[in-house]
């Protein structure tokens, strides 16, 4: 397979590539997150929390760094897309991304 994720994934762990193959555990996880976010803005009802903070990076890297949006079918997860956009737009998240980009 020639998807860019395979160039970034450690060659010494070919068995772990299945994590990003359809049907993927990550696709299932993103689907579960999508279901959770269907009727709420953030993962926990009380608002933006450590749960959101911890998963924002995972989802961002899954579709960004690993370029696996197509592999997991990210386009079908509209609630996760909305949540990711809202999370990445937060001023604190923006500052954190600027620090790590430097």
List keywords for this structure.
102 residues, Glutathione S-transferase Yfyf (Class Pi), Chain A, domain 2, 0% strand, mainly alpha
Descriptive overview:
This protein has a domain at 38-102: Glutathione S-transferase Yfyf (Class Pi), Chain A, domain 2 (Up-down Bundle), CATH 1.20.1050.10. 55% of the residues lie in helices and 0% in strands. It has helices at residues 5-8, 25-36, 50-63, 69-72, 78-88, 91-101. It contains 6 helices and no strands. It is flat, with a radius of gyration of 14 Å. By secondary structure, it is mainly alpha-helical.
Sum this structure up briefly.
Helices cover 55% and strands 0% of the residues. By secondary structure, it is mainly α. The radius of gyration is 14 Å and the shape is flat.
SSE topology:
Elements: H1 5-8, H2 25-36, H3 50-63, H4 69-72, H5 78-88, H6 91-101
Q: What multimeric state do the chains show? A: single chain
Largest sheet: none
Strand tally is: 0
The CATH class of the domain at 38-102, by name, is Mainly Alpha
